[in-house]
Amino acid sequence: MNIKTMIAAAAASLLAISGVSAQEPQFVSIGTGGITGVYYPTGGAICRLVNKDRKEHGIRCSVESTGGSIYNINTIKAGELEFGVAQSDWQYHAYNGSSRFEGQQFENLRAVFSVHPEPITILARRDSGIDNITDVIGKRFNIGNDGSGTLATWEVIEEAMGWSRDDLALAAKMKSAETGSALCDNKIDGYFWAVGHPSALTHETIASCDAKIVSAVAPEIDALVAERPYYRKTAIPGGMYPDNPDDVPTFGVGATFVTSADVPEEHVYLVAKAVLGNLEDFRRLHPAFANLKAEEMISDGLSAPLHPGAIRAYQELGLME
Ligand code: GLU
Fold it and tell me: Which of 221, 189, 193 is nearest to 121 (CA)?
């Protein structure tokens, strides 16, 4: 035996002992958001269901904390992430090459499924005088970090309201995970983001200091919702967080799970099947998933075409013709 065959024989017997198949390990990564948001645990829940059957399919799923929707879409486009969570408004614009994606259309963007609703959520100190989105003018306000869907959507709102950045006393761009302590330390009066509920950051903020969720209601917002297919009027339900008993009217988008046409069909098939084929388990992995329904997940808020791997999974699960 020469050295090469000895190594090969040793490797083969090791594989036989461990029962691992000889196929190359394959990796898929999911881009999410800040760790106290809902995207990050969403990626975690998806990977958990995928990795459960790793011995059968050989795919290892991992989660990355990122800046959010815009970063995830751009990084999938660059081929550096296979999957990502993204707001439905930015899925729409990336696929259609509109708004901030004008001249940077991502035609190969593909939808996999939609997840939880994401209402526009404004947290404010009770001593700040902010009772509605229209009160943030002249205040110290966090508008979202670069790469977040939050900041991109803030820019749309800013334009619709006819505001400029200088209308805020401070336009902070901290990452979501930093905003709760900044608010409680009185460095900002409020912060804005698009997020599912309940979310860890919202809870943390309300539990740490005297903060409340305030509404996002204005005629300009009504007009925005009326003219754009991906916005919806909604309310953040009262009673979800301590001392915030009333429903808070706002508008919102949806969290969606996306990939690229360049990602192999088998990978998308396995991920889509792991989630939709185990939906009851998935729903239990985060309270924001409690009301998810399969029929809605495979159609709502998806403006890019479904990836063929997802279609195969949904047909096999009897969810699609
Ligand atoms: N919708 C947010 C964004 O794209 C992220 C929300 C989250 O982290 O759950 O910026």
Answer: 193
pLDDT, tens digit (0-9, with 9 covering 90-100), for 124-164: 999 999 999 999 999 999 999 999 999 999 999 999 999 99
Residue 34 CB less than 6 A away from ligand 1 = yes
* Token pair of 266 as six digits: 């088998």
309 CB within 6 A, ligand 1: no
Instruction: Check: CB of residue 174 under 8 Å from CB of residue 182.
Output: yes
pTM exceeds cut of 0.85 = yes
Low pLDDT (below 50) residues in the chain: 1, 4-8, 10-22
Task: Give me ligand 1 centre to Cα 238, in Å.
Answer: 21
Half-sphere exposure of 136 (CA within 13 A, CB side): 32
Q: What angle do CA 59, 61, 63 make, to 5 degrees?
A: 165
H/E segment holding residue 70: helix 69-77
Position in ligand 1 atom list of the atom nearest CA 86: 4
- Atom number, ligand 1, closest to the C-alpha of residue 253: 1
Q: How many whole angstroms from 150 Cα to the centroid of ligand 1?
A: 6
The SS3 of residue 175 is coil
Interval between CA 4 and ligand 1 midpoint (Å): 50
Q: What is the DSSP letter of 132?
A: B
Collapse the DSSP code of 67 into the 3-class scheme (helix H, G, I; strand E, B; otherwise coil) and give the result.
Answer: coil
- Could you tell me if 34 and 68 are in contact, meaning their C-beta atoms sit under 8 angstroms apart? yes
Say how far apart CA 160 and CA 30 lie, in whole Å.
32
Could you tell me if 119 and 153 are in contact, meaning their C-beta atoms sit under 8 angstroms apart?
A: no
